[in-house]
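Re: that backbone. Tokens:
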């Protein structure tokens, strides 16, 4: 009887130890799973931060690469409050060319496709008077001006001057330039 009691006690102890070890293993693996989940979350956050950092670095490099191009384009666009300055420069070009210039009309409208709403188009109509070569020189100065200028109408007309002898050329020009809103 004593041997059966000892056997039962040993079996009970072994069963309790098995339950305790199983519980211990369960808690150990539960801790391992939590740490693995935490590590995976941290890894994902690091990957996301590295990706964001790479994107920002790429964007910074791109901005540095296009800085000169943006400056060039901005130099070709009339500033928001620079319409009067633009007209003064055109009149200055007329003086350089030896042309008498009058501004007939000035209008601002939509700039067209591909400018995303931050630019407008300024249209200016001029009448000019002078010699044929001075009118051509004036057009050349306009064409080579540091603005994005397009000619939409150019016409020349020849007539006799007030003295009835001298030939005078009259020019009519309509130009369009980009204007920053």
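Recovered sequence:
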């Amino acid at each position: 009887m004593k041997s059966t009691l000892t056997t039962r006690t040993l079996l009970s102890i072994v069963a309790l130890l098995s339950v305790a070890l199983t519980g211990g293993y369960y808690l150990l693996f539960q801790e391992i799973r939590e740490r693995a989940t935490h590590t995976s979350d941290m890894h994902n956050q690091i990957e996301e931060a590295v990706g964001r950092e790479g994107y920002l670095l790429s964007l910074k490099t791109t901005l540095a690469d296009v800085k000169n191009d943006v400056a060039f384009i901005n130099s070709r666009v009339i500033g928001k409050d620079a319409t009067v300055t633009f007209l003064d420069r055109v009149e200055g070009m007329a003086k350089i060319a030896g042309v008498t210039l009058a501004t007939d009309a000035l209008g601002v409208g939509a700039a067209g496709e591909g400018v995303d709403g931050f630019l407008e188009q300024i249209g200016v109509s001029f009448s000019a008077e002078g010699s044929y070569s001075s009118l051509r020189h004036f057009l050349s100065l306009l064409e080579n001006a540091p603005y994005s200028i397009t000619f939409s109408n150019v016409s020349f007309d020849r007539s006799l001057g007030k003295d009835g002898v001298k030939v005078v050329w009259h020019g009519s020009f309509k130009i369009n330039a980009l204007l920053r809103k």
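The chain has a mean pLDDT of 82. The beta strands are 100-110, 119-130, 149-160, 167-180.
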